[in-house]
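Work Package 3 (structural annotation) set out to generate three-dimensional models for the target panel prioritized at the project kickoff. During this period the team completed the workflow that converts sequence records into C-alpha coordinates, so that structures can be stored uniformly alongside our sequence database. As a representative example, we reproduce one entry of 337 residues exactly as it appears in the project archive.
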Amino acid sequence: HPRDLVSLRSLRALLASMEDWRGALDLVESEIELLPPGDVTGRRTLWIEAAGIAADRVRDPERAIRALEAAHALAPLGVAERRARSTLLHRSGDLARYVEVTEALFAQSPPEDAGDWLRLGHACLELHRLESARLHAKQAVLASPAREAAWELLAEVELAQGRASEAAESLLRAAEVSGPARAVARLLRAARIVAEADAEFAHGLCEAACARDAGSAGAWLARARSAAGLGRREEAETSAVRAVELAAAWPSAVEREPVLEVGLAAAASARTDGRLERAARLLAALRAFAPQSGEVLHGQALVLRALGDAAGALRAAEALVAIDDALKFGSRSSKAR
Protein backbone atom coordinates (compact mmCIF):
# COMPACT_ATOMS: atom_id res chain seq x y z
CA HIS A 1 0.00 0.00 0.00
CA PRO A 2 2.35 2.74 -1.22
CA ARG A 3 -0.19 5.48 -0.40
CA ASP A 4 -0.71 4.34 3.20
CA LEU A 5 0.34 7.48 5.13
CA VAL A 6 0.10 5.77 8.51
CA SER A 7 2.59 3.09 7.50
CA LEU A 8 4.82 5.68 5.81
CA ARG A 9 4.95 7.76 8.98
CA SER A 10 5.65 4.73 11.12
CA LEU A 11 8.52 3.73 8.86
CA ARG A 12 9.85 7.30 8.95
CA ALA A 13 9.78 7.29 12.75
CA LEU A 14 11.62 3.96 12.75
CA LEU A 15 14.32 5.26 10.40
CA ALA A 16 14.73 8.38 12.54
CA SER A 17 15.10 6.24 15.69
CA MET A 18 17.82 4.30 13.85
CA GLU A 19 19.41 7.63 12.83
CA ASP A 20 18.99 6.78 9.17
CA TRP A 21 18.35 10.43 8.45
CA ARG A 22 18.78 10.25 4.69
CA GLY A 23 16.13 7.52 4.54
CA ALA A 24 13.86 9.53 6.84
CA LEU A 25 14.32 12.59 4.61
CA ASP A 26 13.37 10.59 1.53
CA LEU A 27 10.17 9.49 3.28
CA VAL A 28 9.27 13.06 4.30
CA GLU A 29 9.51 14.09 0.66
CA SER A 30 7.49 11.02 -0.35
CA GLU A 31 4.80 11.98 2.15
CA ILE A 32 4.60 15.48 0.66
CA GLU A 33 3.88 13.94 -2.74
CA LEU A 34 0.99 11.93 -1.24
CA LEU A 35 -0.73 14.92 0.34
CA PRO A 36 -3.45 16.57 -1.73
CA PRO A 37 -2.48 19.88 -3.40
CA GLY A 38 -5.08 21.68 -1.33
CA ASP A 39 -3.37 20.76 1.96
CA VAL A 40 -1.06 23.77 1.83
CA THR A 41 -0.44 23.84 5.58
CA GLY A 42 0.48 20.16 5.76
CA ARG A 43 2.75 20.30 2.72
CA ARG A 44 4.46 23.46 3.93
CA THR A 45 5.04 22.01 7.41
CA LEU A 46 6.64 18.92 5.92
CA TRP A 47 8.89 20.97 3.60
CA ILE A 48 10.18 22.92 6.62
CA GLU A 49 10.71 19.64 8.51
CA ALA A 50 12.59 18.28 5.48
CA ALA A 51 14.77 21.41 5.40
CA GLY A 52 15.69 20.90 9.05
CA ILE A 53 16.66 17.26 8.52
CA ALA A 54 18.65 18.09 5.38
CA ALA A 55 20.51 20.92 7.09
CA ASP A 56 21.12 19.51 10.56
CA ARG A 57 21.22 15.75 10.06
CA VAL A 58 22.15 15.01 6.45
CA ARG A 59 24.40 18.09 6.08
CA ASP A 60 23.08 18.77 2.59
CA PRO A 61 22.60 22.56 2.33
CA GLU A 62 21.44 22.48 -1.30
CA ARG A 63 18.65 20.03 -0.48
CA ALA A 64 17.69 22.09 2.57
CA ILE A 65 17.53 25.23 0.43
CA ARG A 66 15.29 23.49 -2.11
CA ALA A 67 12.96 22.43 0.71
CA LEU A 68 12.74 25.96 2.09
CA GLU A 69 12.14 27.38 -1.39
CA ALA A 70 9.31 24.87 -1.86
CA ALA A 71 7.81 25.93 1.49
CA HIS A 72 8.15 29.58 0.50
CA ALA A 73 6.30 28.91 -2.77
CA LEU A 74 3.33 27.69 -0.73
CA ALA A 75 3.35 30.57 1.77
CA PRO A 76 5.97 33.23 2.63
CA LEU A 77 8.61 32.07 5.09
CA GLY A 78 8.81 33.56 8.54
CA VAL A 79 11.86 35.47 9.74
CA ALA A 80 13.40 32.39 11.41
CA GLU A 81 13.08 30.29 8.24
CA ARG A 82 14.43 33.15 6.12
CA ARG A 83 17.46 33.43 8.40
CA ALA A 84 17.99 29.69 8.09
CA ARG A 85 17.80 29.98 4.29
CA SER A 86 20.32 32.84 4.35
CA THR A 87 22.75 30.77 6.43
CA LEU A 88 22.35 27.77 4.14
CA LEU A 89 22.94 29.84 1.01
CA HIS A 90 26.14 31.24 2.51
CA ARG A 91 27.25 27.73 3.47
CA SER A 92 26.51 26.43 -0.03
CA GLY A 93 28.72 29.08 -1.65
CA ASP A 94 25.94 30.63 -3.76
CA LEU A 95 27.00 34.15 -2.83
CA ALA A 96 24.88 36.02 -5.38
CA ARG A 97 21.69 34.34 -4.17
CA TYR A 98 22.84 34.70 -0.55
CA VAL A 99 23.27 38.46 -0.97
CA GLU A 100 19.90 38.82 -2.71
CA VAL A 101 18.03 36.89 -0.01
CA THR A 102 19.91 38.37 2.95
CA GLU A 103 19.68 42.01 1.89
CA ALA A 104 15.90 41.61 1.56
CA LEU A 105 15.77 39.92 4.97
CA PHE A 106 17.89 42.54 6.73
CA ALA A 107 15.86 45.37 5.18
CA GLN A 108 12.81 43.93 6.94
CA SER A 109 14.50 42.55 10.07
CA PRO A 110 17.96 44.07 10.73
CA PRO A 111 20.21 41.83 12.84
CA GLU A 112 21.74 43.02 16.09
CA ASP A 113 24.88 40.89 15.71
CA ALA A 114 27.72 42.58 13.83
CA GLY A 115 28.78 39.15 12.55
CA ASP A 116 25.71 38.96 10.33
CA TRP A 117 26.57 42.29 8.71
CA LEU A 118 30.21 41.20 8.35
CA ARG A 119 29.28 38.02 6.46
CA LEU A 120 27.07 40.01 4.12
CA GLY A 121 29.74 42.68 3.63
CA HIS A 122 32.43 40.11 2.84
CA ALA A 123 30.12 38.42 0.30
CA CYS A 124 29.46 41.76 -1.42
CA LEU A 125 33.19 42.53 -1.47
CA GLU A 126 33.90 39.14 -3.05
CA LEU A 127 31.22 39.85 -5.68
CA HIS A 128 32.80 43.32 -6.19
CA ARG A 129 29.59 45.06 -5.12
CA LEU A 130 31.66 47.67 -3.36
CA GLU A 131 29.06 50.25 -2.41
CA SER A 132 26.86 47.58 -0.83
CA ALA A 133 29.91 46.09 0.91
CA ARG A 134 30.78 49.52 2.33
CA LEU A 135 27.22 50.03 3.58
CA HIS A 136 27.18 46.65 5.33
CA ALA A 137 30.65 47.19 6.82
CA LYS A 138 29.42 50.48 8.30
CA GLN A 139 26.41 48.67 9.76
CA ALA A 140 28.82 46.20 11.38
CA VAL A 141 30.82 49.09 12.83
CA LEU A 142 27.63 50.67 14.21
CA ALA A 143 26.54 47.35 15.72
CA SER A 144 29.93 46.75 17.37
CA PRO A 145 32.38 49.70 17.31
CA ALA A 146 34.95 47.70 19.29
CA ARG A 147 35.03 44.83 16.80
CA GLU A 148 38.30 45.03 14.90
CA ALA A 149 37.06 42.82 12.05
CA ALA A 150 34.37 45.40 11.25
CA TRP A 151 36.93 48.20 10.84
CA GLU A 152 39.19 45.82 8.90
CA LEU A 153 36.40 45.04 6.43
CA LEU A 154 35.58 48.73 6.02
CA ALA A 155 39.25 49.44 5.28
CA GLU A 156 39.40 46.66 2.68
CA VAL A 157 36.31 48.02 0.91
CA GLU A 158 37.56 51.61 0.99
CA LEU A 159 40.91 50.49 -0.38
CA ALA A 160 39.16 48.63 -3.20
CA GLN A 161 37.24 51.83 -3.97
CA GLY A 162 40.45 53.86 -4.13
CA ARG A 163 39.71 55.75 -0.90
CA ALA A 164 43.25 55.42 0.46
CA SER A 165 43.01 58.06 3.18
CA GLU A 166 39.70 56.69 4.49
CA ALA A 167 41.09 53.14 4.42
CA ALA A 168 44.04 54.30 6.53
CA GLU A 169 41.66 55.94 9.01
CA SER A 170 39.67 52.71 9.29
CA LEU A 171 42.86 50.73 9.89
CA LEU A 172 43.78 53.26 12.57
CA ARG A 173 40.41 52.61 14.24
CA ALA A 174 40.97 48.85 13.95
CA ALA A 175 44.36 49.30 15.63
CA GLU A 176 42.72 51.13 18.53
CA VAL A 177 40.73 48.00 19.43
CA SER A 178 43.50 45.47 18.63
CA GLY A 179 46.26 43.90 20.68
CA PRO A 180 49.77 45.41 20.35
CA ALA A 181 51.13 43.14 17.59
CA ARG A 182 48.01 43.39 15.43
CA ALA A 183 47.79 47.13 16.08
CA VAL A 184 51.36 47.63 14.83
CA ALA A 185 50.67 45.58 11.69
CA ARG A 186 47.57 47.66 10.91
CA LEU A 187 49.22 51.00 11.60
CA LEU A 188 52.20 50.16 9.40
CA ARG A 189 49.89 48.95 6.63
CA ALA A 190 47.97 52.22 6.87
CA ALA A 191 51.27 54.10 6.65
CA ARG A 192 52.24 52.23 3.47
CA ILE A 193 48.85 53.02 1.93
CA VAL A 194 49.15 56.80 2.38
CA ALA A 195 52.95 57.21 2.21
CA GLU A 196 53.02 58.51 -1.35
CA ALA A 197 50.11 60.93 -1.01
CA ASP A 198 50.66 62.14 2.57
CA ALA A 199 54.12 61.46 3.97
CA GLU A 200 53.42 63.38 7.19
CA PHE A 201 50.31 61.33 7.97
CA ALA A 202 52.24 58.16 7.17
CA HIS A 203 55.00 59.20 9.55
CA GLY A 204 52.46 59.91 12.28
CA LEU A 205 51.14 56.37 11.84
CA CYS A 206 54.67 54.99 12.22
CA GLU A 207 55.07 57.03 15.42
CA ALA A 208 51.76 55.62 16.66
CA ALA A 209 53.01 52.09 15.94
CA CYS A 210 56.13 52.71 18.05
CA ALA A 211 54.02 54.13 20.85
CA ARG A 212 51.67 51.14 20.75
CA ASP A 213 54.50 48.59 20.95
CA ALA A 214 57.88 50.05 21.85
CA GLY A 215 59.41 46.60 21.52
CA SER A 216 58.53 46.20 17.84
CA ALA A 217 61.64 46.35 15.67
CA GLY A 218 59.44 46.58 12.58
CA ALA A 219 57.72 49.72 13.89
CA TRP A 220 61.04 51.44 14.60
CA LEU A 221 62.40 50.42 11.20
CA ALA A 222 59.38 51.94 9.49
CA ARG A 223 59.73 55.11 11.56
CA ALA A 224 63.43 55.39 10.72
CA ARG A 225 62.74 54.99 7.01
CA SER A 226 59.86 57.49 7.13
CA ALA A 227 61.87 60.07 9.08
CA ALA A 228 64.76 59.76 6.61
CA GLY A 229 62.35 60.38 3.74
CA LEU A 230 61.18 63.59 5.45
CA GLY A 231 64.78 64.73 5.99
CA ARG A 232 64.64 64.26 9.75
CA ARG A 233 68.07 62.71 10.00
CA GLU A 234 68.48 62.65 13.77
CA GLU A 235 65.07 61.07 14.33
CA ALA A 236 65.87 58.53 11.61
CA GLU A 237 69.15 57.67 13.33
CA THR A 238 67.69 57.31 16.84
CA SER A 239 64.84 55.19 15.47
CA ALA A 240 67.32 53.03 13.58
CA VAL A 241 69.39 52.53 16.75
CA ARG A 242 66.29 51.30 18.57
CA ALA A 243 65.28 49.05 15.67
CA VAL A 244 68.71 47.46 15.25
CA GLU A 245 69.18 46.87 18.98
CA LEU A 246 65.78 45.15 19.15
CA ALA A 247 66.63 43.12 16.04
CA ALA A 248 69.94 42.05 17.58
CA ALA A 249 68.09 40.92 20.72
CA TRP A 250 65.44 38.97 18.76
CA PRO A 251 66.91 38.28 15.30
CA SER A 252 64.28 35.68 14.39
CA ALA A 253 61.53 38.32 14.65
CA VAL A 254 62.75 40.39 11.66
CA GLU A 255 64.13 40.00 8.16
CA ARG A 256 67.87 40.54 7.79
CA GLU A 257 68.05 42.79 4.73
CA PRO A 258 65.70 45.63 5.84
CA VAL A 259 67.54 45.89 9.17
CA LEU A 260 70.92 46.12 7.44
CA GLU A 261 69.64 48.59 4.87
CA VAL A 262 68.12 51.00 7.40
CA GLY A 263 70.92 50.56 9.95
CA LEU A 264 73.76 51.15 7.49
CA ALA A 265 72.01 54.20 6.00
CA ALA A 266 71.50 55.70 9.46
CA ALA A 267 75.11 54.96 10.44
CA ALA A 268 76.36 56.67 7.27
CA SER A 269 74.14 59.69 8.00
CA ALA A 270 75.41 59.95 11.58
CA ARG A 271 79.03 59.61 10.46
CA THR A 272 78.61 62.29 7.76
CA ASP A 273 77.07 64.72 10.26
CA GLY A 274 79.77 64.05 12.85
CA ARG A 275 77.61 62.07 15.27
CA LEU A 276 80.29 59.42 15.62
CA GLU A 277 79.20 58.01 18.97
CA ARG A 278 75.73 57.28 17.57
CA ALA A 279 77.25 55.77 14.42
CA ALA A 280 79.46 53.55 16.58
CA ARG A 281 76.47 52.43 18.66
CA LEU A 282 74.53 51.61 15.51
CA LEU A 283 77.35 49.64 13.97
CA ALA A 284 77.99 47.71 17.18
CA ALA A 285 74.31 46.67 17.22
CA LEU A 286 74.49 45.80 13.53
CA ARG A 287 77.56 43.67 14.13
CA ALA A 288 75.73 41.80 16.91
CA PHE A 289 72.82 41.28 14.51
CA ALA A 290 74.91 40.34 11.44
CA PRO A 291 78.45 39.46 12.53
CA GLN A 292 79.46 38.23 9.08
CA SER A 293 78.46 41.39 7.21
CA GLY A 294 81.45 42.93 5.45
CA GLU A 295 79.69 46.29 5.08
CA VAL A 296 79.07 46.49 8.81
CA LEU A 297 82.68 45.60 9.69
CA HIS A 298 84.08 48.09 7.18
CA GLY A 299 81.85 50.87 8.52
CA GLN A 300 82.73 49.98 12.10
CA ALA A 301 86.45 50.09 11.39
CA LEU A 302 86.14 53.58 9.84
CA VAL A 303 84.04 55.01 12.69
CA LEU A 304 86.19 53.56 15.46
CA ARG A 305 89.28 54.92 13.76
CA ALA A 306 87.65 58.36 13.56
CA LEU A 307 86.87 58.12 17.29
CA GLY A 308 90.51 57.35 18.03
CA ASP A 309 89.84 53.74 19.04
CA ALA A 310 92.71 52.24 17.10
CA ALA A 311 92.48 48.85 18.81
CA GLY A 312 88.75 48.55 18.10
CA ALA A 313 89.25 49.63 14.50
CA LEU A 314 92.00 47.02 14.10
CA ARG A 315 89.81 44.25 15.49
CA ALA A 316 87.01 45.16 13.07
CA ALA A 317 89.49 45.26 10.16
CA GLU A 318 90.94 41.86 11.13
CA ALA A 319 87.44 40.36 11.30
CA LEU A 320 86.75 41.77 7.85
CA VAL A 321 89.98 40.24 6.46
CA ALA A 322 89.11 36.89 8.04
CA ILE A 323 85.72 36.93 6.32
CA ASP A 324 87.31 37.84 2.97
CA ASP A 325 89.85 35.01 3.36
CA ALA A 326 87.10 32.53 4.22
CA LEU A 327 85.14 33.59 1.16
CA LYS A 328 88.20 33.25 -1.10
CA PHE A 329 89.01 29.83 0.31
CA GLY A 330 85.44 28.71 -0.20
CA SER A 331 85.51 29.95 -3.78
CA ARG A 332 88.81 28.09 -4.53
CA SER A 333 87.42 24.90 -2.95
CA SER A 334 84.32 25.09 -5.13
CA LYS A 335 86.42 25.51 -8.28
CA ALA A 336 88.66 22.59 -7.28
CA ARG A 337 85.66 20.30 -6.91
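Residues 310-336 form the longest helix (27 residues).
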